[in-house]
Design a protein that fits this description.
Layout (H helix, E strand, L loop, with lengths): L2 H11 L3 H4 L22 E4 L5 H6 L6 H10 L3 H4 L5 E3 L22 H11 L6 E5 H9 L7 H6 L1 H7 L4 E5 L7 H6 L2 H15 L3
Parallel strand pairs: 1-2, 1-3, 3-4
Amino acid sequence: MDQRLQALALDARACRICRDTPLGRPLPHEPRPVLWPSSTAHILIAGQAPGTKVHASGIPFDDRSGDRLRDWLGVTRDEFYDSDRFAILPMGFCFPGQDAKGGDLPPRRECAPAWRRPLMDLMPQIDLVLAIGIYAQAWHMGEQRSASLTETVARWREIFEANVAPRVLPLPHPSWRNTGWLKRNPWFETGLLPRLKEEVAARV
């Protein structure tokens, strides 16, 4: 890894902003930033934030969501965790905690403003961003994003062609909670996933 990127990643992993100088309530547990930047990978997986299992293991997408995502991409676990092939940067590096219903809270607001642009600037070789969920889509797509996630993902062809460096593909979160969404939107499996696999295969 490039020395500047490696140094910045070390600083990010030591970050305690959400505990020590938070925007709103402090993180209710010890921060554990999870990020896998790369100076060689051409694909960036821009997720939401670690869940409980990832917080425990320190390995991104080390859960059922990761299994589904790897199936979407058409890659093995070993390929997925090869930093020469994939960079992984969630919008929030730390597990944000859970709401009263047991669902994960949104990514912490402190994280992306502090770290995302400096990290992206040191990864100019990225030419495909997989923007998973509304928070990643808002940051990486800006005004290209539609009012809802469904509308945004449904416009994937237009969005992919409109972005050149890097290209962006919007995706729903691969969580089991979105199984119903996948059933209601069969075009995702028949249209977007084959193209996704093609674009990934061309870069790994």
